[in-house]
Amino acid sequence: MKKLVGALLVVMSITACQSKTEQTGNTVPSEAFGYTLNNSENINTVKKAIDAGVTSDSAVFVAIYADSAAVYDNMTKQTIFDNMKMASTLKSKGITMKLEKINDIWETISFKADNRDYSDYVNVYFDASFIKGTQKLTTRINAVFAFKNGKIVTEWDTYDTAPLAELLK
């Protein structure tokens, strides 16, 4: 009898400590407002936008951004053309930009469009270096891209401007 009770205790302990791996289906909680993806066409478009920004490729910008797209560069509203001019200005001062690494990127898709009529957003955190001569300074950039009909309609960039200011001295 002691062996039976001992064996039952061992089996119960093992069962209680195991993580549940059973599928419960694709039910969505009623509080959910959307879902996230780690791979999508919009994510690929954002990667193209980052590369175009680093290389100042205006043809790619024109192809992937809506004509009326706005870029909020550290809260300063710009058109994509103003944003491209900023990259040209840096180049004219001998500063180049290099994408070091994409740290995290995902797309959030809402079940219902927000007050701007957007439901698809891509969030990205990446490290970029600004290089002038032998100086190389790196900063982390957080960018959020809103999409409508497969085009980027709004971009919000947030980053520390100190590395750029240092190189512009």
Using brief descriptors, characterize the structure shown.
169 residues; 40% strand
Describe it.
The chain is an alpha+beta fold and 169 residues long. Helices cover 34% and strands 40% of the residues. The protein contains five helices and seven strands, in the order αβααββαββββα. A seven-stranded mixed sheet has the order 1-4-5-6-7-2-3. Helix 2 (41-55) packs antiparallel against helix 3 (58-64). The protein starts with a helix and ends with a helix.
In a nutshell, what does this entry contain?
The protein is an alpha+beta fold and 169 residues long. The chain has five helices and seven strands; from the N terminus they run αβααββαββββα.
Please outline the helices and strands:
Blueprint: H1 2-17, E1 34-37, H2 41-55, H3 58-64, E2 65-73, E3 76-79, H4 80-92, E4 96-110, E5 120-132, E6 135-148, E7 151-159, H5 162-168
Parallel strand pairs: 2-7
Antiparallel strand pairs: 1-4, 2-3, 4-5, 5-6, 6-7
